[in-house]
Amino acid sequence: MKPLDFSREQKERMAAKVKRYLNEELQQDIGSFDAEFLVDFLAEELGPYFYNRGLSDAMSLFTEKMGELDYQVQELAQAED
């Protein structure tokens, strides 16, 4: 998997969410640089798990829809005498 690449704006929003969570839930204040560093760490270390889960969910949906399509095509088949 290639590294996750986020825009500057996306990374700043994620860092702000990390800062807010740490402050509200753990009463820990961290700076923006540290929050962005934590976002990078989480993306690198945990990102593959979320990415693979998303792929798995997409494949399940694709398989389900292909089954529905197969059924619909069979319904269109003409009876042969």
- Domains counted in the coordinates: how many? 1
Largest sheet: none
Structural class of the secondary elements? Answer: mainly alpha
> What's the total helix number?
2
Task: Summarize, please.
The chain has 81 residues and is mostly helical. It is built from two helices and no strands.
Q: If you had to describe this structure to a student in words, what would you say it looks like?
A:
79% of the residues lie in helices and 0% in strands. With 81 residues, it is an all-alpha fold. It has one domain. It starts with 7 loop residues before the first helix and ends in a 5-residue tail after the last helix.
Quickly list its features.
81 residues, mainly alpha, 2 helices, 79% helix, rod-shaped
Outline the secondary-structure elements.
Blueprint (H helix, E strand, L loop, with lengths): L7 H19 L5 H45 L5
Helix pairs in contact: 1-2
